[in-house]
Design brief:
Oligomer: single chain
Number of strands: 17
Distance between the termini: 34 Å
Structural class: alpha+beta
Shape: globular
Number of helices: 8
Strand content: 25-35%
Helix content: 25-40%
Length: about 325
């Protein structure tokens, strides 16, 4: 199976196509979106040169599961999944922030903490914590949603003061973020996992807030294995985790963190296969089902999506 690094579809009623770091998004009649999750992979806000076979299918199928499992909390954009790597859904006007929520001191928050900072996005972090320790309560650390380049940390106060999101809408986003994280935490626990942190994207349609994009995937979330968590924390050992962090660690070991002048290490076929294998492991642990790949061609994918769109007329 070759990686699907990009698509060039043309659908009836297509108004535009947006190419993100990982997704190709088609606007249909200004009413619907066709989101193709490619096999591109990004880290440190850089798209890496090689695609990862089946990665798009894995991310899309995980997102489908969690969108369905949280639809009682708020409506979401998904209408149908005509192919393993494609979701067709409602077009919403996105809020220009990503709602990041952290249950544990890990990743970016830990790096800030390690460097002496005790607030992140205007939220205080307790003294005396260690890496991967659980916060007394999950904290919300939003970021701006950059069209290009790096997303930036921003506080609740600055979001509201600058008019990026109204105070009323932001309060709703915080409420939904906490409810979604609680649901994801409960679902992860049933799989022997800890949902460490994640991010959500929201939008509006006809005055109603919708959950958009992906949810609780290893690209947008960090999971630890619950078994042995406490022992590893007490011993100061690294946690066994399910996330894209292993890709970042491989890049950092090769001297790449997305800074100017740095070069991505060579992505040999062995490296690519190893990343695919890890994504399959992620899927099977998070979803609790064996991953069954689809080998649909680009032509078959386009035909399936076109048939789906015909039903929406």
């Amino acid at each position: 199976m070759k990686a699907i690094k990009g698509t060039d579809f043309c659908f009836e009623g297509q108004k535009s196509k947006y190419v993100g770091k990982v997704r190709d998004v088609y606007d249909i009649d200004g009413k619907y979106m066709v989101m193709v999750v490619s096999d591109r992979i990004s880290a440190f806000d850089v798209v890496l040169p090689e695609g990862i076979p089946y990665k798009g299918q894995i991310l899309n199928k995980i997102a489908e599961k969690f969108l369905d499992a949280t639809s009682d909390i708020l409506p979401n954009w998904k209408i149908a999944v005509p192919e393993a790597n494609v979701t067709v859904g409602h077009k919403c006007e996105p809020f220009k922030v990503e709602m990041v929520i952290r249950g544990y001191l890990s990743g970016h928050a830990w790096r800030e903490y390690r460097d002496g900072k005790r607030t992140i996005c205007g939220v205080a972090m307790p003294e005396g914590m260690v890496e991967n320790q659980k916060f007394p309560e999950p904290i919300i650390t939003p970021t701006t949603k950059a069209a290009e380049g790096h997303d930036e940390d921003i506080s609740r106060e600055d979001i509201i003061a600058s008019g990026i999101v109204s105070a009323e809408d932001y309060a709703a986003l915080e409420k939904y973020t906490r409810a979604l994280f609680q649901r994801g935490t409960e679902m992860a626990a049933k799989r022997g996992l800890i949902l460490v942190d994640t991010k959500y994207e929201f939008g509006k349609k006809d005055g109603v807030i919708y959950l958009m994009d992906e949810i609780h995937t290893p690209d947008s979330s960090r999971y630890f294995y619950a078994d042995g968590y406490a022992e590893r924390l007490a011993a100061g050992e690294r946690q066994k985790q399910l996330s894209k962090e292993f890709v970042r660690e491989w890049l950092m070991a090769g001297g790449f963190q997305g800074r100017e002048g740095e070069v991505v290490p060579e992505m040999t076929p062995e490296v690519v296969k190893g990343i695919t294998d890890r994504y399959v492991e992620l899927y099977e642990n998070i979803v609790g089902e064996k991953f069954v790949p689809s080998d649909a061609s680009l032509e078959q994918i386009q035909a399936s999506v076109a048939e789906c769109l015909n039903t929406l007329k």
